[in-house]
Structure formats: C-alpha cells, structure tokens
Amino acid sequence: MIVAERKAISDILQMIEGAGRVLVVGCGTCVTVCLAGGEKEVAVCASLLRLQNQGEDRDLTVAEATIERQCEWEFVRELDELVADCDAIVSLACGAGVQTLAAQFEDTPVFPGLNTQFIGIPEEQGVWTEHCLACGECVLDKTGGICPIARCAKTILNGPCGGSQDGKCEINPETDCAWQLIFDRLKRLGRLHMLEEIEPPKNWSHSSDGGPRKVKREDMIL
Amino acid sequence: MTTGELRTSVIAFCCENSALQAVEDARHFGMTMPECVQTIRVPCAGKVEEDHILKALESGAAGVVLFACHTENCQYLQGNVRAEKRLTRLRGLLDEIGYPADAVLYASAAPAEAARAARILRTFADDLASVDREEAIEQ
Amino acid sequence: MKAQQQRAAILCSCCGQVDLTEVEEALQSRDIFCWRHDGLCTEDGTEFIAGRMAGANLEGVLICACADEDKARLWRRTAAAEDVQPIMTSVIGLRDLPPDVRRREVLMAAAYQKNMLPVSVREAVSVPQKVLVLGSSAAGLRAVIDLAEAGYDVTVADEEELARRALSHLPPDLSGHNDVCALRDRVAESDRVCVRAPVQVTGIEGQVGGFAATFAHADGHSSADRFGAIVLAPGCEPVQRGEFLGVDVGAEVVPVSQFDDAMAREEGLSVLAGVRPHQVAFVVPSDATDTEVPFMSAVRAARRTRRVLNADVYLLCNDAKVTASGMERAYRDLRDDGVTVIRFDEETLSLEEADVPHTYTDPGEMAHPLTLRFAGEDLDGAGGAGSWELPCDRVFVADQLRLSRMGERLADLLELRRGADGFLGDDNIFQLPVDTNRRGIFVVGSAGRPKTAEAGRVDAANAVLSVQDLLGGGVMTVDHAAAIVQGEKCALCLTCIRSCPHTAISVDEDEGAAVVHREACQGCGICAGECPADAIQLEGYSDDSFAAALDVLRGVQ
Questions:
Q1: Does CATH number 3.40.50 belong to domain B3-131?
Q2: For B21-50, how does the pLDDT look when each residue is reduced to its tens digit (9 = 90+)?
Q3: Chain B residues with CB inside 8 Å of A11's CB?
Q4: For a 10 Å CB count at each end of chain A, is N or C smaller?
Q5: ipTM of this model?
C-alpha cells in the first residue's frame, strides 16, 4: 500500500499562516492503514493546531473530517458544505488525495499534511519498507519476486554491484543487498539460471520518467 | 481560550486496577492532594487515546497525568507499555508546536500506594504552577 | 442477574437556608432518588443517613450537606457499612456555594460517580462441558483425571504415546515413574476420557466456550471436536549442550538429564566402560534455568551417585535456592549423605582433560581423566575457601530447560505469548497460577515454568478450579465490558488484531472488518486506543462518554 508520514507540524503551520478557518481532511484507506492520516491522526493534528493557536493572537477554528478515500470524486464531494465554511484545507492523504481535493475545490488552497513516501509493506507493526517503485514494467518474474528497482539503491538490473558486503548494501549498511536476496531466492527456487540472462538497459519511458502516465480499461468506460 | 474554563487544572486518567484505588484512598485518608485534580477512570492505561489527552489540554487543563500500573504489573500484559509509548510520542508532538511537553506525565502506582500517588500528583501540580503557561507557549 | 441498583442523594436544607428545588430536579433528571433533611450535621443526621441507606441496595450516594473532614469520613464509613464504596460516596457542601453554582457542583459529582460505576453487561452462553488437554506430562495426566472426576468430558491428545515424554526422563526405579504409569493407566481406563495419541493437532479455531480442534491420526483419518476450555501440558525438555568449558559433552562430561541413562548402562553403574569412578562432580552453572528444577535434579543425582557408587561427590553451585519448597530439606539431606557442596566462582571455572593420567594403587582402575579448577568455598567450612583442583572421573552438568517442541508448536497454533525464557506461563503475575494470555486456555506443569512434580499437581488442581469457574454448570457468563468494532469505519489495517494481548480479535471475511470476540475480550481497551480509524469503542468507556465527562468538567451542560 501507499505509505506516508506526517509532515512536521511547524511546516503545516507555515502553510496555513493567515488562514482563520482550517479544515483537516483524513483518508480512510492507505494512510489509515499506515497510521499517518486516518480519523485519529486527523484529530491529533487538529488538536495540535488549536493548541498551538492558544498562545497566539489570532482566531483560528479547525474542523475535522475523514472520508473513505480522498482520491475519489464521489467521496470528496461529500465535503462540499464543510469546505464552503473554510479558507484552507490540510489534507492528510497521499499526493493523489491532496490533488483530488485541490481539483474539486479550486477556490480553496489545499495543503499537504503528509509526505508520501513509497509503495511498501509493513515488515512488522510500525515499520514499513519500500518495495515497489511503480516502474511500469514489472521484472519480478526474473528476480524471484524481489524488486531490484525499488530495493536496490542503484536500481541495477544485473547485480550485485561490487559494494555488496555480507549481504548488506554499501549505500546503507542497514539495508539488505537486494541482489543477495535475489540470488538466495532464485537458488532456493532452483532457478539460478535466470541470472545468466543479461537484462538490457531498462526502458524507463514506461515509468514516470516517460511523463505522467495513464491507464485505461476501454470496456469499463461507461 | 475555548468556551468554559476547566474547573480543574489537572486531569488524571487512572487505571482502575491500580492508580484509581491509590488516588481514592489518598483522598479518603485525607492525604494532602492538590485540589485541582480530577480523575477519569479507565479500564487500562492502554485505553487512553492521544486525541483525548490533547482535547483535555485544549479544554484548559494545565496538565494531564496518565496513571498506570507498574511495569510488568499490567493485568492486560502490555497496556502500560502501549500507554507509555503513546505518551512519549505525544510529548514529541507537543514539542513540535512549542507547547511545554512536561504538561503530560506518565506515572505508575500500585493500588496500595496512596501516599505515592498523592506525592506524584502534588509534585506534578507544583511543577505546573511554577511555569507560566502562556509564556511557555509563546516561545 | 444482579438486581438493578440505584443511586440516591440525601439533601440537607441547613434549617431552610438552602433552597433544594433546583438541585433536586437536576438529580432526579439523572435518575437519582432524593431524600431531604433539615440538619444532617446534627446528631440524628448520621442516623438518618444510615436509616435511609439500610437495605436500599444502593450503588452510590450523594450527601449534600456541610461537613468537615471527620464528618465526611464518618458518613463514608456509614455508607461503606451498606456496601457503598468510598469512591461512590460523595459529600458536597452546598450552603457556602453561591446558589447558581450549586446545581453544577451536584451534577459534576453525579457524573463523576457515573464514570466510576463498573459496567455491568451480562450475557450467558451455553458451552460444552468438554475440556481438551494437549500433552500428557505428569501434571497434564493429573489434570485429566481431576477434570474427569469433576464431571467434564475430557479429551487428551499428544503427539506421542500417552505419557511417553514424561516417562522418558524418569528412571524406572524411581517412584515418580510409577506415579506417572499409574496416572496413565487410570486415564486409559476412564470412560469419561477420550485418548487421542499419537495425533497431530492440525488446527484449533474459535474462542473460549467453543474451541474447534482438528486432529490428524497416524492412519491418515482425521477427527474433530468442540471444547469449552483447553489445558496445555506439553512439558519441557533439556537444551542440548554440545560442549561444556571447551570439552565435548559425551562420555565424560554428561548433562544431568542423561544421568539416569548413564547410570542404567553397564550394570547400573557409570558410563565408564568397566571403570568405577572415585570422584564425581556435579556443576550447576548460571546458565541452567533459573528455577529450582535443575538444582533439584542435580541434588537427586548427586545423592544417588554417593549412595550407589560410594564415590566422593562434589556439588558446585552458586545459588542453593533454599527458598523453593523442599529445598532446604534436600540440601541438608545432601550434606548428611556426605556430598561436599561448594559455592564456586563461575568465572574461575575451567575444565581440563588429562593427557597423562596418574595411576592408582589398585591395579586395573583408570584414574581421573578430567580436572576441574575453580575458586570456591566449601559451604560446610571443612575444606575452606580458596583455589580448588579437583580430579574427576565424571562431570555432570545441570541442564538448561526449554519449552518442549510440541509446546512451541502449540504456542504458534494458539498464538500464545511466551515468557522471557520461552515458557508458556509468561512473567506476569496476573497469569499465575495457570493462566495464559488467552481466556479459556490454561497451562499446567513445566510447560508453564519448570517445576517439581508436586508443584505440577497443584497446577492440575488449580486448572480444575479455573475450568469450573469458567464453564460453570454448562453456562458461561460473559459479564464484562467488551470492545465493539464499527464495521463501516474499519480499514482492516490489522492494528487491533496485532495489539490485542488476548488474541480476541480476528478478521470477519463477510463483514470485511475486524471483529472482537466478546467471550475472549477482557475489556482492556488497548484496541480502541490503537485504532487509527477510531472504529472501536469500549462499552462504558466510549469516546462519547469521555467527551461528556470533559464537558461536565468544563461546566458546559
């Protein structure tokens, strides 16, 4: 899922400077699951903004709302009334959610309360790691289910590099070397011969490097 | 300031398996307790949510105590551990907005430790009173 | 069901000085019954209070009258005599309060009391009077028999033949062995007990009152059944030691757990092929498990060696653990038998295999192949303190114990918490004597914590009491607040499932949400505290009730 982290409150405070009626909006999907922007975090964030304001000389009201998913027009439209009453929105959703709100409510500034980090998984409760870079051309079949794009610091396709030491990455010694993992996995699967095939340079135009992408299902367009 | 000034200055979330008994006994036996403490009963310190503590502060409480069972004495095994972790995080958040982080306190007591409970609350109330809250926020 | 209890207020008008109308109305709107009096501070005031409360079966009382600390204490005692706790006895002086404040004060006291009320929610669930005992350690077999005698249908299941593991480390000539055999036979003969051994436990679903267990039998067929409660008795086992102090564990350095094997070979004497030992040392190092069991095993073995072989026997230990039951006696008997007990400094301990054995005067007898060196003190004082060099024919090392492998499999299957040493009893005092972190699952014997046979017997008795408490006469009462998940808000983030210390929450596939199993929930509220979607409420401690409490404290009605 999409994993995000809350921005520093001081950053959020700077963004909303000058606003008198703020609406903090949460999202009930990915950011709830990664504990960054669900209903509870919205309450915490809103309380912090109000508490901080208690020492200031300005009027500030902070309203709270959480919708099912911030990247859907139908859900976002539920906020019409609340938005009409505010002069700034802080969105605790991933970048897609923030932009959907901004597109729906073009006359109200929408600020991101989170930094969207990556597509990843919880290794254990409270710890998430990056697993997918959405490169648009999945090679996991060739690497035993371990992604060299997202999990190798150098995104090399025919690894490992010379810096792999004791199964750890030379860029960050706390990170497992992805190619060591790939090697171990393919060995276990009895498919080491896959490494004998040299991968040509990746066609990065399939990823975000080729410009903003679009996916269509013609049969599902109403 | 929000409407309705809080009657009490310190809110104490008291675990009903330990601290609540201690605090009530302290009152009952006439131990010196700060007048401004109001207790809210919880089944376990692990029940108390961060946004509740923040709302208590927003409502004008000068301080909030999360009163749990001693380490390894939680009837539910890890409630006090969860509570302490949440409070540590909360202190970090309060720091971020320049609010005195020592306005929230994690403390523990056994049911029979009325004197200890009273002393903890007294010290906490005294510490709160000695710092001008408005000034501290403005920093 | 408990009779519906009420709260009442006793209002004093202070000889007409205080107008009680508003206060009385406010209290009655909160369902609090009111009595009036003109002067509670007078002598007959306390009598009045006592009289009205007698037999009224109140759960709380508000006394609105002027009172100094002594009077207030007296009234609280009076209320306590009618089973109303001090927390639920509020004394509020109204006369000295401005009239507009009186109502608020009284309502705050009433709300405060309400927050203190225990939540009483009751549900009776009919449950099968069947208990599953997993594992057949001595304590487990005892539990099987006791439970059957208490009227339950008991199934005992083990991965090996019944009692095989327990008997494997009890030598046939010891009384313990006979005890276990007798227990096993009684179990096999009882018609209330169903024996499934050997089987593999392939799954246990559900919660207390309805555990659904499936078993795979050796011949390939499977069976299943439903149980009200589970008792675990998979026992403990010694950790294999590869070497001790640099010497390979095998013929000359032997774990105490293999002592009886060693004694049984070669006409009941030592492992030395044909050689009689003259000097034997038993060492209890600090890595032996921290209960009395390794020490007791070493003591028993040392005494047996002394009596049977008439060897010079030394016991090296650091902590005689005399506090455990029976230990002081065992220690005295040990010394009376002539075993030398030495408190040794483990850091100075070294073991050497002799290159050149020195010879004895008796021909044909091999001399000591090992030399133990250490600093230590003979606890009897005879040998004194100092450096020791002890030539030995055998060195027996006390064992480190661990939860048996079957126990580990069961812990995984049932998602049970294990203590720091890996046993099922955990380290939390609230789980003593036989509880695990899950309601309805109990542990007896050394699987919970290594213990003596006697202590295991006590465990079995406690397990029966616990089961009776739980399953009653076929009806299990669930009478505590439980957490409830609001399905629509649940994002299935799994946080609650992972944080529940009691494994009481699971995923309801149909609902697409987490569901709290009421019968297993222990009402701690940790899940409600963790939920990032605020989708879980705990009965009696909901977010709304907290908000209301805060409102009242703020004086906002």
A1: yes
A2: 999 899 888 888 887 788 888 999 999 999
A3: none
A4: C
A5: 0.89
